[in-house]
Amino acid sequence: MTLLEVLIALVIFIIISAAGYSGLQQGIAVQNQLQQQQQTWRKIDALVMLIELDLEQAKAIAPRVPLWDAIAFRGYSNEGAESFGELIKFTRGGYQSYLRSNINPFQRTAYRLREGVLYRVTWPGVDLPEYEQGIESELIDNIQGVELKYLAENRRWVDNWPLRFTPEESLSVPGAVEMTIITANDLSIKRVFYVGPPK
To answer: Who is most buried in 77, 102, 162, 174, counting CB within 10 A?
Structure first.
């Protein structure tokens, strides 16, 4: 074998090795991307289930204090309507305990979107002092936006709830909530949740 043949074989080996390495790198990148997508979908599934459980337990009970929050169910069309990024806030039931009788069966619950992160906020009761901030838990990040609509009695969708801040409507809840979650990579997930027990 001549020196030229050795050089040609070496060049071919380098080309094949480079192609194989490039293919391996692409395979690893695709696998990482699929794992990230799978993790995102798991988080979205858990989020949807949590929102569904919360809204099924929504009650037409408004706080007596503070006065500015004396609304059973408050909902905005998007996070831009509130300084805290609050999307919805409502009274949730279902916390009776046979072990500790002092547990409040109702609590205030809210969902907030702030700087691309969706949070769930809970308060230990309904009538609370103004300085009570609630416990904020991070649910999912990389969220571009959330759009909400609320089903009124006449079967039409509205952007905000309640429609009017009258004593009667302050104690009302919508029939359903339509939620569209838009992720950072422009994936749009739309779900409709009943409010209260399914009708």
So the answer is: 174
Domain count, the chain: 1
Q: What is the pLDDT of residues 141-187, one digit of tens each?
A: 989 999 999 999 888 999 999 888 777 888 889 999 999 999 888 88
Tokens of 15: 């080309």
* Residue numbers of the domain that contains 149: 54-194
Tell me the two tokens of residue 61: 């009970």
**Taking the model in full, what pTM does it have?**
0.77
- The reply to whether 163 falls in a domain is yes
Is residue 73 within 8 Å of residue 59, measured between CB atoms?
no
Answer yes or no: is 37 within a domain: no
